[in-house]
Amino acid sequence: MSDLIRLVYASKATFCDRHVGARHQVVDEIIRQAQANNRSDGVTGVLCFDNGCFFQALEGERDAVEALYDRILEDPRHENVWLLWKRPVTQRLFDRWSMKYINVDAYIHRLLERERLENFDPHQFSDPLVEELLLSIQASEARPETPLQAPVRWLTRQEAQRGWHPSFFVAGLAGMLAVVIGLSLAGLL
Ligand SMILES: Cc1cc2nc3c(=O)[nH]c(=O)nc-3n(C[C@H](O)[C@H](O)[C@H](O)COP(=O)(O)O)c2cc1C
Q: What is the pTM of this model?
């Protein structure tokens, strides 16, 4: 019988005093290590890193996930490791990803703003937010690059000052066409 669980935690990186390139190198190394091990251990999941914080979801057989989490707890590359979730599940959310790195994009930032969280700090995430975030990440493969509900595009300040906007051109063209058609119908052309 399968004993599938999903475990989610938040932690704080210990290497944030290094420059950006060195920080990315550490995260790359973690991802490489995770993907190699998880493939053989049947573990899947996602890892986000932003604002010096990690947010990771691990899925797999209980023994494999718990053994991995014990190793992760001992890892000196992060601290303040807080367990957010550990639940039995019937299905994986991320069955195609041995460990997918997720950028904290505009979509995720909008979720945080809605929760009045100024920065990406998963230690502050409520249970429903964790769930919503995981579902949103799962759906992210199908998510378009632009926000789903793109805001109405008002004139930028420069366009307003210049008195120009792409839609003015289209409106002008349509107006000229209407005049030409009108004149031809009146027999003047
Ligand atoms: C934020 C973070 C996430 C990690 N995720 C994984 C993971 O998903 N799988 C994994 O095997 N190791 C992961 N590691 C690395 C483990 O802590 C540990 O170093 C590694 O599993 C040891 O593997 P090895 O015995 O092959 O050297 C992670 C480490 C950190 C800091």
A: 0.77
